[in-house]
Design a protein that fits this description.
By secondary structure, the chain is of the alpha+beta class. The protein has nine helices and 13 strands.
């Protein structure tokens, strides 16, 4: 930590007052973000955009706990925004960064978050173009909340849910449930957090590689499997297409320790949150090429086909067990899990 950071100690209300302390905090933020921050301190960012169509997304992050074994709220914020842009087929370019800081937050912890933001943004190839910082009283936030907006450009045809059709194979890029188990293990002291790590990662590089390896129309749609889990994603697609989607229980990729932890907690992996797993709807003729491409990337080594879109004209999701029996997967009315992010 720099001498200026050591001098600041912790966040105080006057860091949000617009005075000298605010300017010192802003300088520290900009210094830590380094080359990924390209803001010019104007009231708006003025950015070059080429092409006829852009993608935009926004999200807020209230992660509990905000710091965990192999990541933190900063890494999740960049990954979550970048991934939302990437799965619709756009190239992520720019992010905004809004921070709500609780009085008493150690500056060292803020620097940890900013460092994660910087390193993850570098990996994803995006720049932070503007931001805002607010400071609230003790007890009005859980250390730090983040808000991001993202902008991407389309260099290919956008991917939409309506492109999905009967016969499409449903592919997952990797295991499900690890992020949920990792955070809950830390929160509840379950002891699984060293063996089950969060899957938090920017997936745009993996998808760029995939799109370069297959034909333009081979991947019909992609969705990142976050809050609500795989079941929520498939429910959404089933309703959008009007067709039944069937997944095979024995094909679901779940780490052994994750199964153990979820059995203890009474959680179904298909409802669990993830931060680096994507669900792809793929033309049957391209299934092998898609799997090969995903498995050749470090974030897709566990890619598997887990089901298909059937020609049955009924909006529902089925889970087929090892004996060939189908069970309807009901949509959860409320949250099965405590809030993670």
């Amino acid at each position: 930590m720099s001498s200026s950071a050591a001098g600041l100690g912790e966040v105080v209300l006057d860091h949000g007052s617009g005075t000298q302390l605010s300017h010192e905090l802003l300088s520290l933020i900009v210094e830590t973000l380094g080359d990924v921050y390209i803001g010019e301190m104007e009231d708006s960012a003025m950015l070059p955009i080429t092409g006829g169509r852009i993608a935009m997304t926004t999200d807020s992050f209230v992660v509990d706990p905000p710091f965990f074994g192999n990541g933190d709220i900063g890494k999740i914020a960049v990954c979550g925004t970048v991934n939302d842009l990437a799965v619709v087929g756009s190239k992520p370019l720019y992010l905004t960064l809004g921070m709500i800081l609780e009085t008493g937050l150690p500056i060292a912890r803020l620097l940890r978050v900013l460092t994660s933001i910087r390193e993850t943004a570098r990996e994803a190839g995006v720049r932070i173009v503007c931001g805002d910082t607010k400071v609230v009283r003790k007890g009005e936030a859980d250390q730090i909340y983040l808000n991001t907006a993202g902008v991407g450009v389309f260099e290919r045809t956008p991917l939409r849910m309506t492109n999905v059709r009967p016969g499409d194979r449903v592919v997952l890029s990797g295991p499900i449930g690890n992020h949920t188990v990792h955070l809950l293990s830390i929160r509840e002291g379950l002891g699984f957090d060293q063996r089950v790590l969060s899957d938090c990662a920017p997936v745009n590089g993996m998808l760029d590689q995939l799109f370069a390896a297959v034909g333009e129309g081979d991947v019909h749609s992609v969705r990142d499997v976050t809050r609500g889990g795989l079941a929520a994603v498939l429910q959404e697609y089933s309703e959008a297409t009007g067709h039944t989607i069937r997944m095979e229980q024995r094909a679901l990729p779940v780490q052994f320790e994750t199964v153990m932890a979820m059995d203890m907690l009474g959680i179904n992996p298909i409802h669990s949150a993830n931060e680096g797993c994507v669900c792809l709807f793929v033309d049957p003729s391209a299934e092998r090429a898609v799997l090969d491409s995903l498995r050749s990337h470090r974030y897709g080594t566990g890619a598997v086909t887990i089901g298909e879109v059937t020609d049955r004209p009924e909006a529902q999701v089925l889970l087929r067990d090892a004996d060939g029996r189908d069970t309807v997967v009901e949509e959860l009315r409320g949250a099965e899990l405590p809030r993670l992010c």
